[in-house]
Here is the input.
Amino acid sequence: MGDRRGLTRAGWIGGMVLGLLALSGCETPLNAPVETNQIVKVTETTTADGWRYEEFHNLAYECSISGYHSFVIGTRIGDDPADPRPLWVRLRGGGSGYFNGAGVPVPGPGNMVQETHDTLRGQIRQPGLVARVLGREDLGFRGLAVSMCNRDTYGGVDNLDPNNPHPNEDGSQRRTNGLLATRAAIEFTTARHETTKFFLHGGSAGSAGTYHVSLALERSGSPAAGIVADGGIRNDAWEAARLEQGICTSPYGGPEWYEGFAPRVHWELRPTQGQPHELVAHGGLTVPIAQVWTHGDPTTCGSLPMVCPLASGPVMMDAGDCKNEPLRAVIAAQGPESRSLSMGVCVTRATSPAGACDVHVSTGGNLPNTNDQFPADYLAVIADWVDDRLADPE
Here is the structure.
């Protein structure tokens, strides 16, 4: 294969899409039935604050290197499973990845093995937004933390995993099933515990995953009441412009990365139409969205200026805002009756200069917002948005 470093966005994304769409006819549907009959309970713990955490493994879905997709359900001690309550689903971050032609994981083997009980439990004991939502006894939320051990941004639907040197236990080639495993965990939990509505809350790669999982759930007739997507969103034009303009370095993006990663997610999520702003703009995804990002987030090149490739024409914009602008604009165009919310905030790490706005996943803590577009306690705005979604008609 020749050198593709000089290809334009249209060349390397368009060529990838055309080649991959040719395979779509033989792939599992995005809303395929999920496997829940191989889910087993492995441990249970309780905590001093009155919560019980049950860990389950789904033996139908293996991780990329070793182990199985696991999840933890959190409930208050004394909770009656027959009592209708809402559910908060946490999709953790951890980047995306693939195996190169030599079978080496790129950018590394992290988040490709079975997760521990403590790691999953920590997702629903997290400070910030999770603590606010789960801490409200009047709402009675239960919690569910799912694993991301395929590093497929929760987008795999029985996809063969190219170059993965780790066979399944039966000797067959491993597959990526992050989307199916997440849906299975939700289906299992809502069957085990009477559930009124459920929300998806993801950070970083988990944020990207909320769009993938929501789309499949909506297709299957079981839509989420809303998603909180914080610090991670797909924008192909931004990735290409960032690389062409040399804005910042990253292990993600570019022809080699797309060729390695794209086959690991469902074919409908790969083309341009699978981007969140395209899905929302054209009615493919109607679930209410709380889009959150920090203006100077270093994982999106922060406050570095760039020529932002918008549909209306190129404009100068800070890189982090540029990546989030297409969906922000789509939500704004819905007008005051929109059930969605778009929040660009300035949340700064305690060790950084004031105004750096450099927290990656801001809903995972209690640091204040310091720009004037939203209150310092911007988490209260999101919590109020959750209340509104709970009040939405079924």
About this structure: The domain at 29-391 is CATH 3.40.50.1820 (Rossmann fold).
